[in-house]
Amino acid sequence: MGKIRIYTDESVNIAIAEALKRRGVDAFSARYMGNLGLTDEEQLISAKNEKAAIFTHDTDFLRLAVEWIEEGKRQYEKLCYFYLTGRAMT
Predict the structure, then answer these.
(1) Among candidates 32, 42, 84, which has minimal Cα distance to 63?
(2) How far is CA 10 from the centre of its chain?
(3) What radius of gyration, in Å, describes the C-alpha atoms of the chain?
(4) Where are the alpha helices (DSSP H) in 1-90?
(5) Is residue 72 situated within a structural domain?
(6) Of 14, 32, 39, 45, which is least surrounded by CB within 10 A?
(7) Number of other residues whose CB lies within 10 A of the CB of residue 39
(8) Each residue's pLDDT tens digit in the chain (90 positions)?
(9) What CATH number does the domain containing 37 carry?
(10) 89 φ, ψ to 5°?
(11) pLDDT of amino acid 57
């Protein structure tokens, strides 16, 4: 299993991603990726495309993750599972 990648959205201070990087975590921000102003759904898709867990303070992501699971968007199942439980899906 590879190292976890962390994508911080724009609700998270950029200093968090920088601090994680200094500690050896593969972390990057929405600002670094040029993703400021994207919708929540676009932020989740970006995280999924980068094979990263999303780090956010935005509670709308919980609603979106539940909607995606209910809609059967299977390609996002692991991302949503991690978001809902904080544990990797095996």
Answers:
(1) 84
(2) 11
(3) 13
(4) 14-22, 30-33, 40-49, 60-70, 77-85
(5) yes
(6) 39
(7) 10
(8) 468 889 999 988 999 999 999 999 999 999 999 999 999 889 888 888 888 888 888 878 777 777 777 777 655 555 554 555 555 545
(9) 3.40.50
(10) -90, 130
(11) 83
With residues binned 3-state (H G I as helix, E B as strand, rest as coil), the percentages for the chain, rounded to 5, are: 50, 10, 35
Residue 24 has which token pair?
């050896």
What's the structural domain count of the chain?
Answer: 1
Residue 48 lies in a domain: yes
Token representation of residue 28: 């990057």
> Taking the model in full, what pTM does it have?
0.73
The token duo for 16 is: 């968090």
Q: Is the dihedral of CA 12, 16, 18, 24 positive or negative?
A: negative
Domain that holds residue 57: 5-85
Tell me, yes or no, whether 47 lies in a domain.
Answer: yes
90 located within any domain: no
Residues in the chain: 90
- How far is CA 39 from its chain centroid? 13
